[in-house]
Design goal:
By secondary structure, the chain is α+β, with helices and mostly antiparallel strands. The chain has two domains: 107 residues, no CATH class; 47 residues, no CATH class. The chain is built from five helices and four strands. The chain has a two-stranded antiparallel ribbon with strand order 1-2. β1 and β2 form a beta hairpin. α1 runs antiparallel to α5. The longest helix is centred in the N-terminal third of the chain and has 37 residues. The radius of gyration is 27 Å and the shape is elongated.
């Protein structure tokens, strides 16, 4: 009867551990790059909305409701990173009309909107310009019939372009740093 001896030679370091650390290191660098890109994009969208508002007394409520929502998930042995910019449930109800433009439901149906401009009736000289300089206070004793559509500001599209450019730049920089 022959006897056998099994010998296992193990290196003094664990290859799997080193590879995992390297992947995590690169993932972390890529994740940081994505966070930076998303954060820069949020600031860009906020400023874009504010800069494209033309009425005095603007509050930038819409711009300030845009925020950054990072989320990391580990599923099925994969680590994924998501970043959302704005939650529709937290945006003001008029976000869509400001982004895409068009008529409000009231204007589209030909109905009037009650209100006043600091106690004054609407001035037809400013109709459709959006440059009357005063805020429409609702409710009020006068009725205004909007005749011109709201001009779309397309802040979402501008934000998408900005995010793609920031991701391209930041992720490439992160990959280059991780290789060093």
């Amino acid at each position: 009867m022959q006897s056998s001896i099994n010998i296992t030679i193990s290196p003094k370091f664990e290859v799997e551990k080193i590879v995992t650390e390297l992947i995590n290191k690169n993932f972390a660098a890529a994740e940081i790059a994505c966070v930076n890109a998303a954060s820069d994009t949020v600031d860009y969208i906020r400023n874009y909305i504010y800069q494209h508002s033309h009425r005095e007394g603007r509050t930038n409520r819409l711009g300030m409701s845009i925020d950054f929502y990072p989320e990391t998930q580990a599923t099925g042995g994969k680590l994924s990173f998501f970043c959302g910019i704005g939650k529709i449930s937290e945006l003001p109800p008029y976000w869509k009309i400001i982004n895409y433009g068009g008529f409000t439901t009231v204007a589209a149906e030909g109905r009037g909107v009650s209100g006043d401009f600091n106690g004054n009736k609407p001035d037809g000289n400013y109709a459709g310009t959006g440059n009357g300089g005063e805020r429409w206070n609702n409710p009020g004793e006068y009725v205004m019939y909007p005749k011109s559509p709201i001009e779309g500001k397309h802040y979402l599209e501008a934000g998408i372009v900005k995010l793609k450019n920031e991701l391209r730049k930041n992720v490439q920089e992160a990959i280059a740093l991780a290789k060093k």
